[in-house]
C-alpha cells in the first residue's frame, strides 16, 4: 500500500490487467463520458467527483522524487490521444488510477502544479496504450 494514498501500487502488467477488465465491463454510456478524455485534459466540471473512486496508484513509495522525464516516442505530444502510457515516466509516475462507479471505466489523474496554479488533470486509461518502458 502507498502510505500517502492508502491505495495499492500497481506495476504496468497489473495496470494492463485492470484496464482490460474495465474495458470488458464498461457500460455503453455514462455521465463521465460527456467530454472526450482520450488525451490529458483539465478535469471537466461535468465529471461528478462522487462517481470516481481511487483503486490504485502508480506512485511508488520507494521513489521519493519521481522523474519529470517524459516518454515520447516519435515525438508524440503529451496531450495526444495516442500518447503512450508509460508508468515510470512523467506524468504517469504521479498518477492515481480512478474508476467510475457508474460505468467501470478507468481514468488516470494527477495534479499539475505551477507557480500560480494547480490543475487536476485526467485521462481515460486504454490498455493498448500502456507501455512498460524502463527509465
Automatic annotation (TrEMBL):
What's the protein called, per UniProt? Uncharacterized protein
Amino acid at each position: 500500500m502507498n502510505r500517502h494514498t492508502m491505495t495499492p501500487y500497481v506495476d504496468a502488467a497489473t495496470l494492463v490487467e485492470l484496464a482490460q477488465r474495465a474495458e470488458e465491463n464498461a457500460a455503453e454510456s455514462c455521465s463521465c463520458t460527456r467530454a472526450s478524455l482520450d488525451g490529458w485534459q483539465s478535469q471537466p466540471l461535468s465529471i461528478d467527483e462522487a462517481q470516481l473512486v481511487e483503486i490504485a496508484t502508480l506512485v511508488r513509495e520507494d521513489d521519493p522524487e519521481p522523474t519529470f522525464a517524459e516518454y515520447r516516442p516519435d515525438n508524440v505530444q503529451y496531450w495526444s490521444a495516442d500518447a503512450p502510457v508509460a508508468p515510470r515516466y512523467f506524468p504517469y509516475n504521479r498518477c492515481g488510477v480512478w474508476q467510475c462507479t457508474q460505468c467501470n471505466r478507468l481514468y488516470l489523474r494527477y495534479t499539475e502544479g505551477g507557480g500560480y496554479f494547480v490543475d487536476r488533470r485526467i485521462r481515460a486509461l486504454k490498455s493498448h496504450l500502456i507501455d512498460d518502458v524502463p527509465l
